């Protein structure tokens, strides 16, 4: 008994000593990696995302090795070894996920999405992010399966499930039809380039920017700081507007209803002056047209262009405000007005007093009319 406890104490001392030496070596190694990480983005990200799981992995390995050689025989040796094995599998999966996250962050950091023409960079960012999430989900699933397979009952259940894989597969497919549909839609979004991170979209009459894309849902950051969460299958089955599919440049309109007397050519000159005095206009399009004439008003439409959607919104508001001020200041007679004509009232003609004619009743006062009336009245 004393020999067993001595072996246990020795194992604990050896494990603690090994882990202490490892911590000292890891400290110097981490400083070296940080220094080298100034030239390598992957090493820098590894120190952030893989450092903690690596420490846990090394600690579990040290404890498991010490227990394997120094743990005395007893009824609790098996459960302890099994628990350490489960911990090793779980921490190993965590470490692999950290490495994958580090590689993904390093790859994304090389992409320039802060430039005007960033469509290619946003496409790669979306694909890299979704691929990392798919692989991390696969690693987690494999780790969970490996942990289950360490239990004899789970292995027996797995064998019986394989024997009836057809029925179980059909039932599982029906139960997870919606989830699998969203997962496949997320994979399709990643590689079809239909939508990317930071795309400006119109969904359900809401204007916003794609903030996050997962395998099952998308998060849209709306213009008023609300978040709209939509399933990925929606974007593969329903139409939506993508304002930055090819480029961010857009056209916008400003419409005013004015009197027929408005000087259209002078209004065009005023539009050119307004656009020339602001940096919101990208210099591509400046058009003013009369698009409709109804009753006492004409509809004047100004077509302008901007580099992106937020700038276009501000430009449209600016053009609308200054055109309204110009009409009020320079041509107030062209403001919308309602024309009325006063007519002298005349007495209404008197109607003749006579009984209602034959055509004043539904069925009429004829033989045929009375016959149809009796038909509808019944016996």
Automatic annotation (TrEMBL):
What keywords are annotated for this sequence in UniProt? Answer: Membrane, Transmembrane, Transmembrane helix
Q: What is this protein called?
A: Mechanosensitive ion channel protein MscS
Supply the source organism for this entry: Amycolatopsis rifamycinica
What Gene3D superfamilies does this protein's entry cite? Answer: 1.10.287.1260, 2.30.30.60
Q: Where is the composition biased (Basic and acidic residues)?
A: 367-379
* GO (cellular component) term, any one: membrane
Taxonomically, which superkingdom? Bacteria
Annotated TM spans: 6-29, 54-71, 83-103, 130-154, 160-180
Q: Mainly localized where?
A: membrane
The region called Disordered is annotated at 340-379
GO biological process terms, semicolon-separated: transmembrane transport
Q: Where is the Mechanosensitive ion channel MscS domain?
A: 179-245
Short name of any one Pfam family annotated for the protein: MS_channel_2nd
Localized where?
Answer: Membrane
């Amino acid at each position: 008994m004393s020999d067993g406890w001595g072996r246990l104490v020795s194992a604990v001392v050896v494990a603690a000593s090994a882990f202490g030496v490892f911590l000292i070596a890891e400290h110097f190694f981490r400083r070296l990696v940080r220094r080298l990480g100034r030239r390598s983005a992957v090493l820098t990200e590894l120190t952030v995302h893989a450092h903690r799981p690596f420490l846990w992995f090394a600690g579990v390995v040290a404890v498991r090795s010490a227990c394997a050689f120094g743990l005395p025989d007893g009824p609790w040796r098996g459960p302890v070894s099994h628990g350490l094995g489960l911990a090793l599998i779980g921490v190993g999966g965590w470490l692999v996920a950290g490495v994958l996250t580090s590689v993904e962050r390093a790859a994304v950091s090389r992409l320039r999405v802060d430039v005007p023409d960033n469509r290619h960079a946003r496409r790669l960012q979306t694909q890299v992010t979704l691929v990392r999430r798919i692989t991390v989900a696969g690693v987690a699933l494999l780790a969970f399966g490996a942990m289950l397979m360490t239990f004899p009952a789970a292995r027996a259940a797995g064998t019986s499930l394989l024997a009836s894989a057809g029925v179980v597969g059909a039932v599982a497919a029906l139960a997870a039809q919606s989830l699998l549909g969203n997962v496949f839609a997320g994979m399709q979004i990643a590689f079809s380039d239909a939508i990317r991170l930071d795309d400006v979209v119109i969904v359900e009459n809401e204007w916003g920017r794609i903030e996050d894309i997962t395998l099952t849902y998308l998060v849209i950051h709306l213009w008023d700081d609300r978040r709209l969460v939509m399933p990925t299958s929606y974007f593969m089955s329903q139409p939506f507007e993508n304002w930055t599919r090819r480029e961010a440049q857009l056209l916008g309109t400003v419409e005013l209803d004015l009197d027929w007397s408005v000087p259209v050519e002078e209004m065009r000159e005023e539009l050119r002056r307004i656009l020339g005095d602001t940096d919101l206009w990208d210099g591509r399009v400046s058009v003013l047209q009369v698009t409709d004439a109804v009753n006492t008003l004409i509809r004047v439409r100004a077509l302008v262009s901007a580099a992106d959607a937020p700038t276009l919104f501000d430009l449209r508001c600016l053009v609308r405000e200054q055109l309204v001020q110009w009409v009020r200041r320079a041509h107030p007679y062209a403001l919308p007005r309602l024309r009325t004509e006063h007519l002298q009232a005349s007495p209404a003609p008197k109607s003749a007093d006579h009984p209602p004619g034959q055509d004043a009743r539904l069925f009429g006062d004829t033989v045929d009319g009375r016959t149809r009336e009796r038909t509808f009245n019944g016996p």
